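Each field is listed here:
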Amino acid sequence: MDIAITTPPSRRKYYAWGGAGLGILVLTLALGRLKPAVPSVERQSILVDTVKRGPMVFQVRGTGTLQPVDVRWITTGFDSRVEKIRVYPGTPVKADTVILELSNPELQQAALDAQWQFKAAEGELISAKARVQEALLDKRATLATVKASYASARMDLDANERLEKEGLVARQVLMQARGRAEELTTRYQIEQERLKIGEASLTAQLAASSAKVEQARALWLLKASQVEALKVRAGLQGVLQLLPVQVGQRLAPGSTLAKVAEPSRLKAELRISETQAKDLVLGQTVSVDTRNGLVQGRVARIDPAVVNGTVLVDATLEGALPKGARPDLSVEGIIELDRSADGLFVGRPVQAQAYGTLGLYRLAPDGSEAQRVQVRLGRGSVSTIEVLDGLKPGDQVILSDTSAWDASERIRIK
């Protein structure tokens, strides 16, 4: 008689778990042997360039605006009020063209007061000159009287000395004549000195009065010029660019009244990235694109400061300006830094940095796929970059953004 042998429930559960584990292991090994799918891309959707060898021009690009070379900002130097606007922006002006008229009653009154003070000082000077002349005449008259008396006394003394020798006059009379002559001699000398001192003193008094007149005149001219400045003139032949005021507006000292510029003489102000500005030097050639034509120029000034990651460069423009060139027009400029007679270069890939290493996809000879290679780069230009290692002339590489395929060493091209 057969006896049925039954497997215990615990052993059946053990066999089930073991079979499941073995299945998972086999599946894992099978998946591990599978190769990842190669991504594919349409040829029309990517940018491809060929590595070349030959002359290379190193350039940097910047954007900016055209700005006038000759520009004048007009500000007010005192409190005032806008009374009348004569000229509006866009109007050609000459240096003496009145742009607007201001008013300042206090300043106008001060100018009148200064004028009256000047006239009063002039009158005082005239009066002082008259007094000085009168005083000098009195001193000269006194000197003339003393001189005449002195001459008469000398004649009497000479006569008495002759008569005394002949015994015709008493010695006492001679002594009296001699004493009078000596007295008048001394007095004549004193009057001469007094006249000299008086002339010097009176001249100094006139100089002081003249200085007061000049001081009053200078103050009057200053106030008069300030009143004249209430008629705001262009001060430069050109075009009125800006007039940020309105009739009736109150203005504080230092307020901007207008901007006048010469539109026929323009320069380009370009902003260059600070990472590309290290090779800039004065005199480098610049090509400025005004969107309506090109004009050549040269680097004339490089700002020593970096502002918002850029360096400001001024370029003088040579030759005739393209039609439509005007102040504040947006432009693009390309500055030539250097030239290489023989270099290996390719179009600048996305995210390429000068003197860096970058993974680029190099196309196979048949163009069906591309393999990633490490490329060492050199100096960069606007649209090209120097190749130091990793590529050779004739190689074709993808310049487009390939960050989506970073996990793949190769891609298929359809």
In short: The two ends are 75 Å apart (CA to CA). The first strand starts at residue 40 and ends at 41. The chain has three helices and 21 strands. The longest helix spans residues 105-165.
